[in-house]
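This is your field. Please look over both lines of this record.
***
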Amino acid sequence: MLIAQAAGVLFALGASVSWGGADFIGGLVSRRIGSLQVLALSRIAGLTCYASLALVAREALPPLESLMWAAAAGASGALGIAALYRGLATEHSALVVPTSGVVGAAIPVVFAAAFQGVLPVVQQAGLVTALVGIWLVSTGHGSTGAAASRGLAFGGLAGIGFGGFFVFLAQVETGHVFTPLAVAGCASLSVSMLALKISGQNLPSPRQHWVAFFAGALDATGAVCYLLATQWIRLDVAAVLGSLYPAITVLLFRLGLKEHVSRTQWVGLAVCVLAIALIAVV
């Protein structure tokens, strides 16, 4: 039992590392093309990864109910990203990321408490600590400190989308990984293409912007790790550990591009490490 829980924790942390790397690469590509265009290209890469892995593994189709949950997860995640990108375009974007991160992590915590019972006190403290760490790490040094209802609204919508992804994907029947994720990838790609059409943008040339495919591959890796984690540990633990990805993104920008990391973000990184230690108590 302890080995299974430890494996689940490692998979959840693997999801956060993969998603943090995906955001880092996606952020770099977004400096050259539109963020929704990056999203669409990354969704194509993700779907290709899922479908290829499902074929290689010869994984059987899960029950229809699991496929429906997977489709809901894919659509919810894509809507969350679309709301996040839209919020980042507002003048109060500094509030969007931390709000989306905390809301997205809090939803599965509430869901799990309602349907799976409460965790031991130490792990409850770890979850709360993680939420604080996510907020601190995600709060950029350029924040104006002004209360912006529009930024909060987009951040909240993005968080609801991410929280829905965490909860819906965790409902997939144990033992199935790649085929439900392929279904989720189809739904996610459909939503991203719709967002492109609504915004009046075209799908950019994959050949010219192939780096975006690395973001999609890392995002797909994160989803695989997260789904595996939910089959070993509780939903709330997997979701909160997976939601620590902003810390990875901040570190990558610091190490790779020498970008400034504020004192608040350094404190947030330390808080996230403490949260991992508390949550990992099994």
About this structure: Residues 141-147 have pLDDT under 50 and may be disordered. The chain is about 75% helix and 0% strand. Residues 77 and 275 are 24 Å apart (CA to CA).
